[in-house]
Amino acid sequence: MRSGVRTYFRRRIKDLVLGANDGIITTFAIVTGATGASLSPRVALVLGIANLFADGLSMGASNYLGRKSEADSDATADPRGALGAGLATFAAFVVAGAIPLVAFLVPMAPASRFPAACALTAGALFGFGAMRAVVTRRSWLYSGLEMLAIGAAAAVVAYVVGWALAGVAGLDMV
User: Which chain regions cross the lipid bilayer (predicted)?
Assistant: First the structure.
């Protein structure tokens, strides 16, 4: 069984990493942008959930279309793999992308929600990055830190943009 799972992950690593990485980062970017703009946690949660399904579908469909186009242009490529690639990307996006929202779904003090979301997201980014080492030649530490750094950079950008736009737009929605 372990070799079957390992084979599946090796075959789908690109699709799974693409979906998980983008799911975590874009959902957390919505949370950080909303926090930077001082929007309510409910707004962050609604936007985050909408992102999970709309962007997850977009990512999965885009991966499917890309793989299908590749198969259509190359007689040696297998077009049946395109659907599996799209579904793997969508599933990884939704599952991993939900992690930053957990802090907004469980009972806790409002002031603790964003720090908890940061911790959950950092752990997920590092964990998913480290799991790449199962099928790559990179160390788990390097792989985890690489994905964490990319996600952290995106979060900083989203927070600053949210903060700046809230100031420009005169938003005060907390």
Answer: 16-37, 43-66, 87-108, 114-135, 147-171
Q: Which two tokens stand for residue 154?
A: 């995106």
pTM of the model: 0.85
pLDDT at 174 over 60: no
**Cβ atoms of residues 127 and 99 within 8 Å:** no
Q: How far from the centroid of its chain's Cα atoms is residue 167's Cα?
A: 27
pLDDT surpasses 60 at 131: yes
- Nearest residue to 68 (alpha-carbon basis) of 59, 55, 81: 81
Phi, psi for 54 (deg, rounded to 5): -70, -50
Residue closest to 160 by CA, chosen among 30, 32, 42: 32
- DSSP string of 142-158, one letter each residue: HHHHHHHHHHHHHHHHH
Alpha-carbon gap, residue 138 to 45, rounded angstroms: 35
